[in-house]
Amino acid sequence: MMVKRAKIIVLAAVLAALPLGAAFAGGGGQKASGKADAFVKPAETVTIRIGTNWSPERDVNYRDANGNPGMSAELLAARTAAEKSVLEKYNVKFEWYQYPGSGRASEAILPSVMAGAPVVDMTRVTGWEGDSSAQGLLLGQNVLQPIDDYAALFLDDPESRWMLWGKVYNHYFFLTEQMRLGSDGNLAYNLSLLEKVPALRENGVLQHPAKLFNEGKWTWTAFEDMLTKIKAYYDSNTPGTVPFWSNWRLSAAQAIHSNGGSIYGDAGIGISSQETKDAVAYIERLISRGLLTDARVTPDAASAEIHGSNDLDAFNKGTSAFAQLQLFGGALADLRARGESVGVVPWPRPDTMAADDPKYQPLNETKDGWAFVRGIGAQKTELAVRAFKEYLAVEYATRAGSTRALDYLQTDRGLRSYAAEYGYDVLHPTYGDDILKAMKAFPTTPNDYGRATGWMITWEFSILGDSIWKIKNTPAYSVNAEQFLPRIRSFMSDLQLSVDNGQPRERTVNANTIR
Fold first, then answer.
1. What is the rounded average pLDDT of the residues 78-105?
2. What is the DSSP pairing of strand 46-52 with strand 122-125?
């Protein structure tokens, strides 16, 4: 998706500021107390209305004009079982409501909450809504209800911890959209292209990324060396085929987490940490050496506008050995039709970090999720939290063919199902086992919540992008991030008390003016 930074609008409700340490802590792992322990099943069936931008993908009763459901047979069976379990255990029925018109939650929820009659009880919060994230917009409007009182339901349950995002603006707000491995932008590679490069073989055996990862050899240097060999081979044999066609934002975010850094995670704002600065410098080196290609719409360094690029097209056409794949199926139809194989691997770690270092945390960025609307009352909120927890647990246990949701991504059967959905060739007779084993290292619990803050796009473009692409003589990232940090803290301070206890309201703030 291309995002034009000049059009970025973030809605924020601005009140007084909390101390910076409290205001900007991320997940933190704190446990709620009190309300999570006592619960009485309602005697009468309660309907929980859930808003979404596209209801057919969740509504098991939806049928199109030809009588077809809006989801696969597997998902239909799993979500039907989940809704049945929710009804039996909590006497709750879900009603899926599609937002009218543009489908934007931020346009539908605010007026209804301000009128004292919320149009929905829960809402899907998308990674993008117009030119910003729905999380940032809805938090700015102060229409989302913290679920701190119920966080212990997840934090105290190892089977359900994956469902809960960390803290944003010092509160728990969001449950995950899906159980997944890693994040948008997982590092994928075309095995068919790698096999043609003689320099990637040792004693006749292809040293592909998942193999190196499983042997503890998958480092920044190893990756750079592999890209160098791929570039040398294809420059001589098939000009136009590049080692790695990527998006600078995805690559930087992945490299940052592989180095123990963050954008906005459990430790708070991480854009100016040394780990983050070193990771950005690594990405800049790959770009400068022609090892990472990013085709921007506006390559003119004098331009004030830069755009993201989509690397799936080159990868699908077989003209890029590596890519960072978005987490949706069906993206690589042409590649599969040619009979080519795709592997996947966590981002490499820096050479100074041991393979088992706990700081090595591949990115699991929060994107789409679910949140609870202000004004529905404490009892209904708790019921909705518990019911949706049950819904997610049963859905993934059913998809795993198990009684445990976690088996979906912790057993070989579950991983093979997941790999088939996204096109990773874990059944390859030579490389499949390596790929399957490497997949187990991807995190399933969200660990970066930058997109929910309201300033993520400022970081991506004004801080990171302008520095990398030298837009209007922007200084190096290490300098630019330090210059922006106080302004981002001020932006977050202005929002903090609104999130805590302010009234829902609309105030338009241009995040790109954090300058």
1. 94
2. parallel
Strand partners, 11: 508
Distance, CA of 271 to CA of 487 (rounded, Å): 13
- What is the DSSP track for 379-425? HHHHHHHHHHHHHHHHHHHHHHTSS-TTHHHHSHHHHHHHHHHHT--
Do residues 481 and 256 touch, judged by C-beta distance below 8 A?
Answer: no
CB 280 within 8 A of CB 468: yes
pLDDT single digits (tens) 173-225: 999 888 888 887 899 999 999 999 999 999 999 999 999 999 999 999 999 99
Q: Please compute Rg for the chain using Cα positions.
A: 23
H/E run at residue 243? strand 242-244
HEC sequence for 169-203: CCECCCEECCCCCCCCCEEEEEHHHHCCCHHHEEC
Nearest to 267 by CA among 489, 459, 24: 24
> What is the C-alpha to C-alpha distance for residues 505 and 11, in angstroms, rounded to an integer?
9
**SS3 (DSSP) at 128:** coil
165 vs 23: which has the higher pLDDT: 165
> How far are the Cα atoms of 223, 347, 430 from residue 212, in angstroms, in the given order?
10, 12, 14
Angle between helices 378-400 and 412-422 (to 10 degrees): 100
Q: In whole angstroms, how far apart are CA 105 and each of 28, 53, 167, 501? A: 28, 7, 21, 21
Task: Lowest mean pLDDT of 43-47, 132-136, 286-290, 480-484, name the range.
Answer: 132-136
Q: Report DSSP state, residue 458.
A: I
> Encoding tokens for residue 267?
């430790």
- Identity at 58, one-letter amino acid code: R
Gap between the Cα atoms of 410 and 263, Å rounded = 27
pLDDT in tens, 255-302: 999 999 999 998 899 999 999 999 999 999 999 999 999 866 455 555
Taking CB atoms within 8 Å and a gap of at least 24, the contacts of 294-297 are 294/245, 294/246, 294/247, 294/248, 295/245, 296/469, 297/2
Please tell me the distance from the alpha carbon of residue 23 to that of residue 170, in angstroms, as a whole number: 6
User: Is the CA virtual torsion 337, 218, 262, 271 positive or negative?
Assistant: negative
The mean of the pLDDT values for the chain is 85
pLDDT (tens digit, 9 = 90+) per residue, 365-386? Answer: 877 889 999 999 999 999 999 9
What b/e string do you get for 168-179 counting C-beta neighbours within 10 Å, with b at 16 or more? bbbbbbbbbbeb
